[in-house]
Write a structure and sequence with these properties.
mainly alpha, Ferritin, 6 helices, 83% helix, binds fe (ii) ion
């Protein structure tokens, strides 16, 4: 009887151990993995584009947005990197041609034209990010990634409102 009980405990322990592992390293399904990689790439692009904005913005409010984007997205990127690491996902990417192109186009602009083009680029980036986050919130499987997505969405939605509000005055 004692042996049976001990075996039952061992078996339960193994089941629980496996369940716990399923939430961590190397266990992500393709939707979650694709999301995490794309979110990281977009997040990095957002910081690079906004760093350019800090240097080139004509209007004080636009520069303020650029500074807020660098601050908030650097924080989000760090959180996402920690999360990815815990799931065994490597976020190092060879490059981001889309961001390179956007930056090259923005570098050609100056003054008020830069501000307009910069806000437009930020608006597009945030719309894409919000729709990717909303899809992951709905279709993702990993509970920790989904929790991070739901926690981060209000910040990103707030950015889009701020960007749109500033665009109205331009
Ligand atoms: Fe943002």
């Amino acid at each position: 009887m004692k042996t049976t009980l001990a075996l039952a405990f061992i078996a339960a322990g193994l089941v629980l151990g496996n369940a716990a592992r399923a939430e961590t390293k190397g266990s992500l399904n393709s939707t979650d993995e694709k999301f995490i990689k794309e979110a990281a790439m977009h997040g990095k692009a957002e910081v690079r584009i906004s760093q350019l904005g800090i240097g080139k913005a004509d209007d004080k409010a636009v520069k303020g947005i650029a500074e807020q984007m660098v601050k908030d997205h650097t924080m989000l990127n760090t959180e996402l990197e920690t999360l990815a690491k815990s799931k065994g996902v490597d976020l190092s990417v060879a490059g981001d041609p889309k961001a390179d192109k956007a930056i090259a186009n923005l570098e050609k602009e100056s003054g008020k034209d830069f501000d307009k083009a910069f806000l437009k680029e930020l608006q597009k980036g945030h719309k894409d990010t919000i729709s990717a986050f909303e899809s992951e919130s709905k279709d993702g499987k990993d509970s920790e990634i989904k929790a991070w997505v739901d926690k981060s969405l209000p910040t990103i939605r707030g950015h889009l409102d701020h960007i749109k509000g500033t665009m109205k005055g331009k």
